[in-house]
Amino acid sequence: MPAPSDSLRVGCVKYLNARPLIHGWLEKVIYDHPSALCRQLARGRLDIALVSSFEFLRNPIYQIVDAISISSDGPVYSVIVAHRKELSAIDEIRLDPAAETSVNLLRCLLSEKKLHPRFVSGSPSSPKQESGQLLIGDQAIRFRRDHGDDVAIWDLGQQWKKLTDLPFVYALWLVRPEVTNPQALAIADRLRALRDSNIRNLDKVVAQQKEIDAAFCKRYYREHLRFNFGDEEKKGLRTFQKLCEKHGLLPRREIVLRTV
Known about the structure:
By secondary structure, this protein is of the alpha/beta class. 40% of the residues lie in helices and 18% in strands.
């Protein structure tokens, strides 16, 4: 007999953008940064996790929970490069070591503009005059709240929309191949129902956020983020795959989107 869906090991990114997808989940959840969750899922230490979409493109062994993602269709607000000089004059960009998808999105966007700064790993900080800083998630939100008037902001969601006229998919629920179809479908149905309930009752989700202003949270969820994974989001993911291949970030191959 397969184990019930509530016995599966579940992981989720620990950012504000994931709250409408996980708020109210009653079983244990392992929360971590995107890069750490990707490693745990790839090594089989998690059965299902809300992780970077690039993890699927890099290692397309997973099933995808259909109809759910963390996406944007324009400015995302929380995936940014903060900089002081013109972007074309920046020599170096410091990368958030927790990032996965955003780093490769940034590489694609800059390569399409024929810009090739050095990339270095480092803890998020205020950018120096000659450099930029990639910030994602809650760190980007706090940085913009505290320093947004002092630097220029290059919003990667906005730049993607300008380039492709498609949504960009940052995160997906990915299911390990060892999970049986009945288990995978059962937990996928529960996750879709939870997302729908949280979107209908968004004020309750917002009320649980203690560190970020409630008015901002409402705007963030309603104006900057999308939580669907429909035809347009799938086109966006496919386009990201092709650009990653073009710029040598992924091998050229056919990838099947297997959804549950």
